[in-house]
Amino acid sequence: MRPKMMVHPSQARTIDNPVEIERLLAMGWLLAKPKPRTKTAKTMRTLRARRRAEGWQSLLLFLPPDDAAMVKAARRHGEDYAGLLIRLVRQQSLVESNMGQPGHN
Questions:
Q1: pLDDT, tens digit, for every residue of 16-57?
Q2: Domain tally, the chain
Q3: Does residue 46 sit in the same domain as residue 68?
Q4: Alpha-carbon torsion 101, 102, 104, 105, what sign?
């Protein structure tokens, strides 16, 4: 496979002046072709906006490799990471609520 020159969208600029385009190309700037939008892109944007408005939170986690392996091992077949997180939090809540009941030390 041939190497591809990549430009991050945050670094991309839209230039419509032909003289400026030639000057930047001569300086080593690259022409970038935007990634085509998928058929569901609009739906996904709408869903994310609606969820944000409803108070949903987006989470991004970085785990050390050994912790990531433990998390992966705890997942059930077909369970996504969000489902795993909710299941474990609910289990922990049940354990903590049962510890306050008589008969549990």
A1: 888 888 888 888 887 777 777 788 988 999 999 999 999 999
A2: 2
A3: no
A4: positive
